[in-house]
Amino acid sequence: MDALRWNRLYALFEEACALPEAERLPYLRDACGDDTALFDEAAALVAADTDTHGLLDGGALDAVTGDALALLGDLSLEGTQVGPYHLVRLLGTGGMGDVYLAERASPDEQAQFEQQVALKLVKPGMDSRQVLRRFQQERQILARLQHPHIARLLDGGVTERGQPYFVMEYVEGVPIDAYCDTHRLTVDERLALFQDACRAVLYAHSQLVVHRDLKPSNILVTENASGEPGLRKPTVKLLDFGIAKVLTDEDDATALTRTGKAVMTPAYASPEQVRGEPVGTGTDIYSLGVVLYELLAGQRPYALPEHDRLAAAQMLAEQEPEPPSTVVRRATTGGDTTGSQITDARRTQPERLRRRLTGDLDVICLTALRTEPERRYPTVAALLDDVRRHLTGLPVTARRDTATYRLGKFVQRHRVGVIATVVVGVLFAALASFYTVQLAAERDRAQAEAAKATEIAAFLEGIFEVADPSVAQGDTVTARALLDEGAARIETDLAGEPEVQAQMMTVMGNVYRSL
């Protein structure tokens, strides 16, 4: 294929990929006109880019040569033998290689390997130095990554035709976003799966490996069989280290951009990736932030134009993403079906979901999505720790530390204890108020009785004044005379004390009756 035709084919491919999938073939038919061979080649190339497997999502056209394009239409190798493995069916295809579901053909050694594996094979003709270097680097990276949440490298070799291949653990899973929506996982359940993905990325970083293409289709969720019927045990598996970078590899950036096309997935790429700048662990932190944002809000933070890198870079530089809670509020108050789908997929109500995201989760997402790498979380461990702190009710480090915030987190963390303490306090206060009122009433009654006794004593003292010798002048004072004196004085002396007056009238009436 001459250079002119190759450039034309490459341009058609780029233009078609910028369109929605349903519009690509009609566009190619119009653009190619009567050149059916050009249409067939362009259509095959677009199909190869569209039908990708998780192991191949790094980009369909990186390092594609003219000789390799002629082989894109080759028949599948299903049913053939590659080393000791029998190829069962094609799982996916990309620019550099094909991935097959395979089984080990040697029965006596089968027990040493997984029953089913994913075998990645370099395409015939794709044996340029750059492709082989990339393929060998991916194999070396996988060989050094041994983690329960990363698909394992099991074997590798070279076919009789000299094609390199390697064998990986076959992960029959679902992208993490689709799994969460299909099973209607709550926010807490989604955060638990996201933590597992963070642990896998953190381990890769500890091995000096940056993934550079983190997205839901590379973070699969499988369900392990359990002994109890109906009990699911989801497990996260991280795939596709095809464009991963070893931090000590100084030539990697040059090799990956040699075709003039950055290797990335624009919707999940960090600003420095879009601008074609050097990347580091902050790139994976940004991509994890996009994944987390999508898991929580049901939408990505930006609608980036995939076909225009300059416009995407400008949008990332000039626009700050909205908090997830704001996106949810707008989607759920608009009355469209999208809002109801978002809340239904999370088994909650719109207002409850908005309150759940407001605060910690908004801050965690926006911190991971900052444009400048130095303003993001310094490590995946810091991001993972903030998610853990949020789930356990502890203050997250990304938020401004205030007394009110800490008090609120303390109440949230010890909700039962705080409620019990408040209830006990209210009971004690009520009891104290009750007994205070009772004691005050008893005191008032005692004071009233004391005042009454004083009045009675003063009244009686006044009655018996008639018996004083200085008053009686030697006359004999009889009991009736005392009663008559008391009866006369009741009306005047006790006029202001009706209770005492009534009591004394009763006593004196009884005495008169007795006499």
How big a fraction of the residues is strand?
A: 5-15%
What is Rg? Answer: 43 Å
What's the overall geometry?
rod-shaped
Distance between the termini: 147 Å
Uncertain parts: 51-74, 249-261
Please identify the structural class as seen in this structure. Answer: alpha+beta
What is the strand tally? 11
How would you portray this structure in words?
The chain is of the alpha+beta class and 515 residues long. It is built from 21 helices and 11 strands. It has a 6-stranded antiparallel beta sheet, with helices on one face. Strands 7-9-10 form a 3-stranded antiparallel beta sheet. Strands 8-11 form a two-stranded antiparallel ribbon. β5 and β6 (164-169) form a beta hairpin. The termini are far apart. Residues 51-74 and 249-261 have low confidence and may be disordered.
Helix and strand layout, with pairings?
Layout: H1 3-17, H2 21-32, H3 36-50, H4 66-69, E1 81-82, E2 85-93, E3 97-104, E4 117-122, H5 129-144, E5 153-158, E6 164-169, E7 174-175, H6 176-182, H7 187-206, E8 209-210, E9 219-223, E10 234-238, E11 245-246, H8 252-256, H9 271-274, H10 281-297, H11 309-318, H12 324-333, H13 337-345, H14 350-357, H15 360-368, H16 380-391, H17 403-413, H18 415-463, H19 469-472, H20 479-493, H21 498-514
Antiparallel strand pairs: 1-2, 2-3, 3-4, 4-6, 5-6, 7-9, 8-11, 9-10
Helix pairs in contact: 1-3, 2-3, 7-10, 7-16, 10-15, 12-13, 12-14, 15-16, 18-20, 20-21
